[in-house]
Amino acid sequence: MIVLGEAETNPVSQGYGHSASDVRGAISQRVLQSGIAITCARSWERSMPYAFRGTALLFLLLGNTPPDQKPTDIIVTAPARAHKELKKQTLNFVRTISDTAEQNQFSRRDDPFCIKIVGIDLAYHDLIRKKIRETATVARAPKEASEGCRPNIHVMFSKDGDALMAALKRRYSAIIGAQPIRKIDELMQSKKPVRWWYATEGRRTGNVASLISTGYEIDLKSTVIIVDISQSNGYPLESVASYISMIAFAQINGATQEAIGNSSILGMFNNDKPRIEALRNLTIWDRAYLHALYKIAPDRPIWQQQKRLRGAMVEYIQEN
């Protein structure tokens, strides 16, 4: 198992209480400074031609590592057995994690996904890509695009997320400023382990607007995800990769990090357990949400979508 970290010290001495074999491969300050995590203005400029629709990939700054053991799927908050109670649980879950504040529908990916990981040794790409692909399969989202595609899932790790966001806001103020006010506040909030934002696009469907269909749907075009290594120090990379995969395929409320409990991988950073014991995979709630999101009709009014989303979640949970 590989653990995110930035100190040269042995993680065992930091109070994790696990053997050295459990934490071998922790990222060191020396590694971070040796070229795996480098950022410079010229790198940002080179990134700009590959900007995705509605947003831009702004920079280059990473550092990370992959696990060597089979994951165990842990369900910490079990779904209720009673149908009525389970429906209440799904309602609370959907309301907590969904980001639909400025929209009248749920968004989801319609195009094949294309992953871009910058500034990290190629040996470490596979774990993050694997988790994202597994999540796409669970969701039954569009398949991965062919090699040479235009990236629409950007994953970046920084030693100082606060400084990086401040620099991005100064350099690309129009792009950051186009986000809703609450999202800008969220992105600029200090000491967040993970920050993200989305580019969405509304488009007309082939259906005529009616009581059933709005004749309109919202596509999730791109996702930018920034992981602050200093705030994620000690978490297994597998856990962080699962967290990333959840964010990549659904428009998730950034405040979820503080609001959600153990029912979701999204509550990983809001847990009193030792970091090394973090969940490694999506929970049953996470999988049910993504599966249901890609099952419901994309052109329905949001109240219909939410009702059918909850129903599909209940069905998935009861069958799995």
Folded structure, characterized:
It is a single chain. With about 325 residues, the protein is an alpha/beta fold. It has one domain. About 35% of the residues lie in helices and about 10% in strands. The protein has helices spanning about 30-35, 40-45, 85-95, 125-140, 160-170, 175, 180-190, 230, 235-250, 255-260, 285-295, 300-320, and strands at about 115, 155-160, 195-205, 215-230. The protein has a 4-stranded mixed sheet with strand order 1-2-4-3. Helix 4 links the parallel strand 1 (about 115) and strand 2 (about 155-160). Helix 3 crosses helix 12, helix 4 (about 125-140) crosses helix 9 and helix 11 (about 285-295) crosses helix 12. The two termini are about 30 Å apart. Mean pLDDT is about 75; it is low at about 5-75.
